[in-house]
Design brief:
Layout: E1 2-6, H1 8-17, E2 29-30, E3 36-40, H2 42-51, H3 58-69
Antiparallel strand pairs: 1-3, 2-3
Helix pairs in contact: 1-3
């Protein structure tokens, strides 16, 4: 199991795309600076890492992928 760190905005995007009745709140941990750490399985982490652009953080990558998936502006 790997851990990713995302902003509050990205966590809200994740929550909005989650299946009905599913929440990551049980597994996510809020940090004092407002970011979240979220455990993800190795396969999910590999997909995030494979999509990562040079210099992108977990938050940058996940946010970009989610925005593209929901049809919003990826950047």
């Amino acid at each position: 199991m790997k851990i990713i760190t995302v902003s509050d905005d990205t966590k809200h995007l994740i929550d909005a795309q989650a299946l009905p009745g599913y929440t990551i709140r049980r597994t996510a941990t809020r940090l004092p600076d407002g970011r979240w750490t979220i455990p993800v399985d190795d396969e999910v982490f590999e997909h995030i890492d494979a999509a990562r652009l040079l210099g992108e953080t977990d938050d940058d990558t996940v946010s970009r992928l989610l925005r593209a998936a929901i049809g919003g502006k990826a950047n």
